[in-house]
Amino acid sequence: MDPSSIPAPASILPYWELGTVESIKRVPTGLMNRSWRVETDTGPYLLKLFLDVQGEQLAFQFEVLRALAGARVPVVLPVPSNHNTDSLIFDGNEFGVFPWLKDGRHRSGLSMSLERCRDLGRVLGSIHLTLSKAVPTPRQPFFQPSIPVEQAMDRVDRLLDLIDSRHGGSSFDALAERTLRMKRGLLAKLAHRRPPDIPVMSSGYLHGDLHPHNLLLDGDDRVLAVLDWDRLRVGPHSKELVRAAAFFFTHGDERGIDLKRAAEFIDGYRDIYDLGAPEIRIALHRLWWERLADNWVIEWHYMRRNQACDHLLPGQTALVKWWTANFDEVMHTLVR
């Protein structure tokens, strides 16, 4: 999108009754949208330009948020415009305004007590339970096969050829090559550990991108709000559960996952919406294989020439090594 085509925030804000605007500052975080913090005499707000979701899809997202709020799931509802709409379109750009939760903070799950880890799991369980009732999907098995060994190894080889052709000598080049060669060896050695292609029985609408930056906590680490629903989608409940556990409780180094906290999180989820041990076990197996077979950060760097996520590679590499070495312990601790 051409930044020059975006209307100035100051020209848009009068279409909402927010009081006297005192300042407008761009929020630096967020890959999929643009946002501004707006200070007014009635309090702070967030002005959001929706880039990834618009129109009917965005209207559906707002319906989902109201259903969640009605079930006491902590979400932030949009401020109605002067036209009593949730969003407005200016020059083809769709904007919305939300209250700014000034007392909220983003925190790693590693900083949370075991009690709060369990509470967080209950929040995710409440999200899945509420969505399964408010926006039900056809009750049928969800089939999502894991990447075949040959395909994964072919991707590794193509990336290794790219690195070799660049004759690069950067630290990222070196780490990328070590990571790919490690993964190629593990894929060959552990081909028999590829997850079986069996359907997932519990699926429905998911948040789609639950991680610490999309969660606001209060000073006691209770969830104030689950944010950024732009990746709302249908998928396996168990996949979102175990992915969230990895996002919130991974150290990002050779220590791997804090299994004690992750176990409390999963148990809290099961307090509200129990998928059963077999479903969670296969989701964990598939996530391990996905981490082993996928190389999206390296692909972004060399194929998209996008280095925005290069800093994630060391942690991803360490997690694959740790999880592979501790595969049985992960299963035993998290599925109990």
From TrEMBL:
Keyword annotations from UniProtKB, A to Z: Transferase
Domain Aminoglycoside phosphotransferase as annotated: residue spans: 24-270
InterPro entries: AGP_Transferase, Aminoglycoside_PTrfase, Kinase-like_dom_sf
Gene Ontology molecular functions: transferase activity
Domain of life: Bacteria
Name of the protein described by the UniProt record: Aminoglycoside phosphotransferase
